[in-house]
Model the fold of this input.
Amino acid sequence: GNSVTQMEGPVTLSEEAFLTINCTYTATGYPSLFWYVQYPGEGLQLLLKATKADDKGSNKGFEATYRKETTSFHLEKGSVQVSDSAVYFCALSGPNTGNQFYFGTGTSLTVIP
Amino acid sequence: DAGITQSPRHKVTETGTPVTLRCHQTENHRYMYWYRQDPGHGLRLIHYSYGVKDTDKGEVSDGYSVSRSKTEDFLLTLESATSSQTSVYFCAIGQEFYEQYFGPGTRLTVT
Done:
């Protein structure tokens, strides 16, 4: 079946630290992969996506590479800011998912000055 | 931002009463989804629609029904609300399996 597994949180980092949030997936076929971000009191916003193996999605300094060989899509940022404090969700969808999205449970990130 | 609104944004209701949440879009997207978000569970799909009058169940559909009589509106109904349905409900829209766009959410409390 289809599923997404994210690293457990919460994660607390100091400003300017390096961020990695791990995400692995199980899927049939070749899904598209996504990272969404949710700020307090808001809905989810698309952060970045990748639609095929070896694609790198990037946005606002965040990056993630679609690794088919390790079925992973880890989120990284070289220097986090206080404004990056949010919950991050990894997700997949594709032609073999019945047009549904599968989300991980979310990883809460707090960045302290 | 995608044009998605949800109403009401907050609601408190009593156990056993019916509740209807509304999702409205101005993007003419074919697919619409209802999720609930609970601590420790992330997002769970309740129902989704792939066209007017075309709906299907998601992972946690028990106790919920939906209707879509127009492309722009997707209604979620709790026929008889229970305390276990206290949650934050999100509507999303999309085109097939491409990225989804989310509404601002409705916080529902069942007392």
In short: The first strand of chain A starts at residue 3 and ends at 6. Chain A has no helices and twelve strands. The two ends of chain A are 41 Å apart (CA to CA).
